Amino acid sequence: MPPARLARVTVPTLALWAAALGVALASLLGWLAPWSWALGLLEHFRVQYAAAGAGVLLVALLLRRFGVAALAAGALVTNLLVLSPMWISPAAPAGHGEPLSLLVLNVEQDNLDHARVARYLAETDADVIGLLEVDSRWLADLAPVTARWPYVVAEPHDHDRFGLALLSKRPLRDAGVRAFGVAWPPAIIATLEVDGGPLTFVLAHPPPPVRAEMAEVQERFFAARAAARPSLGEDLVVMGDLNATPWSYGLRRLLARAQLRDSRRGFGLAASWPTATPVLRIPIDQLLVSGRVVVLARQIGPAVGSDHFPVRARIALAKAQPAASSAARSTLASNTRRAGPRIVTPE
């Protein structure tokens, strides 16, 4: 570079180049998730990369640094293309049956505000509730409120953060705890009748991929769940803190292999964690659906003391396709381990 031109390279220009290169590099490295768990952590922050790219682009255009602007624009467009399906609504069915309200909440095991969570459960009064990170203390403190949900499958964990509880106002059958490819963590599976047909629920909380061994467990968990898809019936809801964003490699592969759909399509980003740090917030609490399941509404609830926001939805079954076959339901029943969870049903 000629000395005169080099002299015109100011500190703000260098800072702009560094910012644009950083955003572009992080955006590209995230695509290497299939080969590196550590680089895979970068892929979850597409929203932040898009926002940073937009900011750098604006400043670069104001300062007439068009090379920097081009690089920032490339990073911005790349990430927006990944994020844009969140705002594209799927085709609506001709008609649907009775709506069912859902709530999924990671209570955060260390959250001491049990009363606040109890009040929220009572206020929302959802038909089906999935709770994550529950231990025996959580179940005991919530018992006065959760008594209104007479059908319960609970697997509390007092020594780790992977306890689960599924609560329903409607009768559950074929309910139990099931291991998906790994002995830990477990998942809860149960079926209830909706409009005369079966609707299967899977409540899960695989570990976050923050270390190589945990990333491997999550990968095997997703792969085994996809492999089990034929045994779970036509109409399915998979919900929980999956510790993966919708555009992450692991979750995209699960959606494709298991023929699942992201319930947030058409309802926006719905970032749910962490509550305390908005700038880093990402959507890792999921409601995935398949078959005739139609998502009528989906939203993030208010803060309840946990590091996760609740996720609420209303779903129904479309009237266009037949229900799951009896063979699939029979396979589901035979594959479910009944021993272990506490199953409560009314007398």
Structure report:
It is a single chain. This protein is α+β, with helices and mostly antiparallel strands. The protein has two domains: 3-86; 90-344, Deoxyribonuclease I, Chain A, CATH 3.60.10. 35% of the residues lie in helices and 22% in strands. It has helices spanning 3-7, 11-29, 37-40, 46-62, 66-83, 114-124, 136-146, 212-227, 249-258, 326-335, and strands at residues 100-106, 128-132, 151-155, 164-168, 173-178, 187-194, 197-204, 236-241, 261-262, 285-290, 293-300, 311-317, 342-344. A seven-stranded mixed beta sheet has the order 11-12-1-2-4-3-13, with no helix packed on it. A six-stranded mixed beta sheet has the order 5-6-7-8-10-9, covered by helices on one side. Helix 4 (46-62) runs antiparallel to helix 5 and helix 8 runs parallel beside helix 9. The longest helix has 19 residues, at 11-29. The radius of gyration is 22 Å and the shape is globular. The N and C termini lie far apart (84 Å). Residues 321-347 have low confidence and may be disordered.
Give the topology, please.
Elements: H1 3-7, H2 11-29, H3 37-40, H4 46-62, H5 66-83, E1 100-106, H6 114-124, E2 128-132, H7 136-146, E3 151-155, E4 164-168, E5 173-178, E6 187-194, E7 197-204, H8 212-227, E8 236-241, H9 249-258, E9 261-262, E10 285-290, E11 293-300, E12 311-317, H10 326-335, E13 342-344
Parallel strand pairs: 1-2, 7-8
Antiparallel strand pairs: 1-12, 2-4, 3-4, 3-13, 5-6, 6-7, 8-10, 9-10, 11-12
Number of helices: 10
CATH topology of the largest domain: Deoxyribonuclease I, Chain A
Query: Biggest sheet, open or closed, and with what strands and sense?
Result: 7 strands, mixed
CATH architecture of the largest domain: 4-Layer Sandwich
